[in-house]
Amino acid sequence: xxxxxxxxxxxxxxxxxxxxxxxxxxxxxxxxxxxxxxxxxxxxxxxxxxxxxxxxxxxxxxxxxxxxxxxxxxxxxxxxxxxxxxxxxxxxxxxxxxxxxxxxxxxxxxxxxxxxxxxxxxxxxxxxxxxxx
Length: 133
Hints:
This protein is mostly helical. Helix content is 65%, strand content 0%. It has 7 helices and no strands. Helix 4 (70-84) packs across helix 7. The radius of gyration is 15 Å and the shape is globular.
């Protein structure tokens, strides 16, 4: 059992992809430096450390995740871990247990801080043979 509606995961993947696209757009078309996205993420980190609001889109993603119930948050974390290869399909129950055991009040920040989150969630769904819309 996944523990979260596929529609919610799909919605989150779309939001993450839009957020990532927004980061790339801020680099400008003439800027060919591959580290630009990293520089922009550093700005987010700096703003969080000083108590500032890094970006409304970032805040929206975090809030979307943080409003999910515990089981849904746990499932998202386990799904991301599955997608990035920390666990494999046969270890799904272990991933869920580890995610539940490590759960904090900062799940949204944790997940949004994972580079390639959308890709990992999609791959996790694929490994569990769940259809991504």
